[in-house]
Amino acid sequence: MANILIIGAGRSATSLIDYLLKKSGEFNWKITVADADKNLAEEKTAGHANAKAISFNINDAEKRREVIREHDLIISMLPAFMHGAVAKDCVEFGKHIATASYVSEEMKALDKEAKNKNILLLNECGLDPGIDHASAMKVIDEIKSKGGEISAFRSYCGGLVAPESNDNPWGYKFSWNPRNVVLAGQGTAQYLENGELKFIPYNRLFTQTNEIEIEGTGKFDAYANRDSIGYINEYGLASVKTMLRGTLRQHGYCKAWNVFVKLGLTDDTLKITNANKLTYGGLINSFLPNGSGSTKAKLKTFMGSGYDVEIEKMLEYLELFSDKKITVAEGSAAQLLQALLEEKWKLKPNDKDMIVMQHQFEYTLPGQTTLQKLNSSLVVIGKDDHHTAMALTVGLPLAITVKNFLTGKFKLYGVQIPTKKEIYLPLIKELEEHTIIFSEKIQD
Amino acid sequence: MANILIIGAGRSATSLIDYLLKKSGEFNWKITVADADKNLAEEKTAGHANAKAISFNINDAEKRREVIREHDLIISMLPAFMHGAVAKDCVEFGKHIATASYVSEEMKALDKEAKNKNILLLNECGLDPGIDHASAMKVIDEIKSKGGEISAFRSYCGGLVAPESNDNPWGYKFSWNPRNVVLAGQGTAQYLENGELKFIPYNRLFTQTNEIEIEGTGKFDAYANRDSIGYINEYGLASVKTMLRGTLRQHGYCKAWNVFVKLGLTDDTLKITNANKLTYGGLINSFLPNGSGSTKAKLKTFMGSGYDVEIEKMLEYLELFSDKKITVAEGSAAQLLQALLEEKWKLKPNDKDMIVMQHQFEYTLPGQTTLQKLNSSLVVIGKDDHHTAMALTVGLPLAITVKNFLTGKFKLYGVQIPTKKEIYLPLIKELEEHTIIFSEKIQD
Q: What is the ipTM for the molecules in this complex?
């Protein structure tokens, strides 16, 4: 018997809520779904006997604390920066919390108190981070159990559009928060390569990419994620020489996105006033250095040798050289770009999205000198624009792991991510029942 | 009779405090100098009969409010982000406030209440911003009084090292907050050029520079300041076609600084742990893409056609290709770079710094068709590493303007910057008595 509170009932919470409602009879759970939009919460609970839908303002601390106090475990599907406040309340009142987001400094600071109180602070339990940790650790522990030593680990994941719904030259549509896609990678990425610490600043992130080919699925560009170094310890890979986590886009996307980075169109700091007096063509022109000829010609000169017809087509598809009016009254360049992309990269009702993940391991087995190479890959195709592969793979690991915790399958407290056997083994097993199945292949 | 509180007694407050102490007898002022470091506050008041030195924690709101309540006018020499809290207290208690910093959103939000209460919120009253506004407005108003129409305004300022103390290839030493110098320009700059809105993102800021020559002083590079557009209204230049404010560095500095930007060495977001296990040569190498040869050779290839021997010499001067150990245990790349620069670019005891400012006006007079060009320039040389031109030109305008306000020379309330005649005219006149004198020259 447990009272579960789910905060946030957006698209990415669909499979999570469905799963928990289905199991609620068996385990005697009462489930509250809360959202700022009460209709959305009601839509998701759909009159289920064990569920109720509520609505409250998450920033109203008193109300939030009152609601949290009535439950045993809180699942926060809020934007990542809002987890901290919820987690603080949870630890104070002795409630467990689960999220799909990266462990924040605020979360880390609650670890000790949570452990003392036997409170679980489950994080990074969605797709990426989430399924990536679980599936990587399964292979790592298997190699280790044979006495193998892992020298290189590379892991890539992308939320993309399925080939059958891919009808734009970018090979991309939004199945996830558009703002995060536009701002992706700002800052500096760090990873380990052949024993050397490597940094890539944002201004070069989309030029220093790897090309990945996944059999039967296609070619992809991979750019480095923010911090790969921190996972060397988390994964127990102390002697690894190469450690890289990256994000996948369709092959060709990164060189075109680099135009935006070089122009400055992904800047989110300067507010452009009266933006709705500008056109997208005018905006591009304002970001270009002085030169002669059309905006298109100036851009070609500006970008230099890497620029090609393919990139130009991708920009034309977005009407970036046109008199198309900007409709945002005031916003950063990133916000103006986002508004355009949300129009151009929208999933249509029957469009299917696609999740692609691949781990690449290099290791040696005891008594052998040849380097072994193993790839572990996952491809998940969504059903339509609402039942997306993204929503499934983000929500399900969280739901399954919460179920496993509440039913005593593991007893771990404080900050946890799905890297421990007692968490990842039953998780991976159950994901397979939902056709989220990795295929492993020895490489020649 | 007035009680004046000066918060912050660092180097940049020296001339401000000296000036106000000198005038304190004549105007019956009691002056309190507050600093987190009581010794510093005592050093600056030096037992003056009208002064006292105090020390308190600015983040202790109760104590801060208690101190503010005992005074009539507060001069905040704190870092800019801290003015907001002080200003809020000031407006609540009916106290005036004066700063040398840019008008913040927090300050703007207090404007209406301050006007209602006849409270002055004086800002941008140092060097740049400050003297630049006052001296530009003097010329602008003079041209306007002749019926002239200004079509272009460019204004440049730099805090540099004097030629006689310039003994490093960068032509630069710190006379100001090193952190601000290292992080300068992050975000996107906007200005107006020939009627077109122009943006320059940080990744290209140090490549799209102007070359400026100031007679008898030398050649300089100018890079664009964050926001030049906002000053079109402030300066009353509605019909201007070119509006640019920029920062000066010695000619050659910007192309070398661009190496840091392109490498990613000015990133302040990623914390590098165990940095003290690295060398500066190793750090550069970690930021370089893979390649062959020495770090120096790889950097040359990486930078491409703009790279030359002069830049290499500047980097060598900083020991950036060497095994010099990093001493900072943990910090962003920007912090590691700053630590090195603070060592290399330190003013020696007898070093003199130099302030250079130049406004360039283009205008037409009524009934004439030829474009008039006028430059108004200022050069100030410091005395030594403590009595810097920087401290003089930042502190004096603030001190003089506070004096002019307290003695009734102007009666303006709410947010003010020194663009109005009643503020800038007496200010410029008195600055001239302190040998801060602009020379105007018609250009051919």
A: 0.90
